[in-house]
Amino acid sequence: MVGVPRSGGCPTCLSRKVKCDETRPGCQRCTKKGLKCPGYTRPLDIRTQKPPFAAPPRDRKHPKPASWVIARKPTTRPLLLPQITIDEVLAPNLAYEALSMQTKESFQGWLMYYFPRVYFSFKSRVDVDWMDFLRDIPPAQFPQALMWAIRALITFQMGTLQGNEMAIYSARHMYGRGLCHLRALLQTPAALSDECLASCILLGGYEILDGSSERSWISHTHGIRYIMSARGAAAHKSGIGRTLMLSFRPFLISEAFVMGEHCFLGDAEWTSLSNHALEGDGKKGKKSALGKILDNAFDEFAKCPGYYAVTRNILASPTDPDNAVMDPLLSDIAHAKERLRQLRAQLDIDQSMRDLDSFSGSVPATYVDSTAQLISDGINSILALLGQLSTILEADQSRRSLQRQARLVYGANSTPGQDPWRLSAEKFSRRNDIRQPLLLCDPTAFTSSTRPIGDALDRFSLDLGMGSVSTNASQPSEFAPTPVWKDMPP
Fold this sequence. Notes:
This protein is an all-alpha fold. The chain has a domain at about 95-390.
């Protein structure tokens, strides 16, 4: 392509767009017009130029073969970062709140999977159930301990159903974070609040499902017992307090049985809560015969660990028991047996009566028969325990009376032979050390698996794990080891 010629005229002629004759020192056109010719000097055009590219010197020791091909670095597209949505601009916590809401709603499925019968047994008889309680807590006031407990339980359920070990590990991590938040919450004035107790109960539920050690649930239940005792019975008379008490009631009784100690739920101020609730149900038109039987049965169940503990102390004592202790104990055991027989008779009704709403209440028809049967099985096993407690106490009284008569006949300084009753009682006491499991009340001993699937916890919560034991306690349970009371002295 031919280059475009550039004019060499003066600037005045160039601006007038006329042909310059380029006469020196000034052109004729400017002279004729009476203008001063500026001449033909051009201004300097300064431009920046990069230095020429210099290739780096080659290494003469290791010359690059000619056959080598220089591999160029592949060009990669820049990463597309997600753009910030308008929701995140206007409400930065919107995604977190949506996830928290989904987590709380998923807790309903966890309840239906592990505790369908227990949940329906009191759902319509309480002022606030679990889901109402979780939905009503403002997001800004929702305790982190409670949120992480819910996440851990839901994730553990997903992991066990899918056989996903990574999900179970994640659930354990969430449980650990929940414990850290709970530890901090217990150091605040909110340690006795409903939210704190709910966090303890759900984290205790995780310990039962996937405990860090064989009896870790015992230590956790100790803490729940102390918190509930510090709150007092009045805090559990209505509202979410009563729901929390009903939810963890079976495990508190089980812990007392395992430790061989008195259960605080058997005290008069706590058993009176059932009567108060029944009066309220009558006024609200929420009467349920099945729910009434369940509450009354558990009131009697809660007294049994105390009977067991006192009986064990009497058998192990080298001195004769005071009648002020023995007589009320036998009377209370007899009253409990009579009361439980009455409750069992109320369960043994015709099938047509069970189908009535006045009997089942909010319990679905699919769970009415199994719920009634589980309660009846628990009553039968408790009756077997109370029967053997009263038998051994009466036999111990007769033995001690014969010993007193022998001392009167043979003298106080006589040396009696070995006492088989005393040896048996001491053996019984040693075998049932408080650190050893008693009865069948260990919710972590359902099966050979350490991860109970299905409604095993639900069944345990209705019969205290003793439903599969016959009245003579001669057959082992499918959920736990053989009960120890069958080895009591006759």
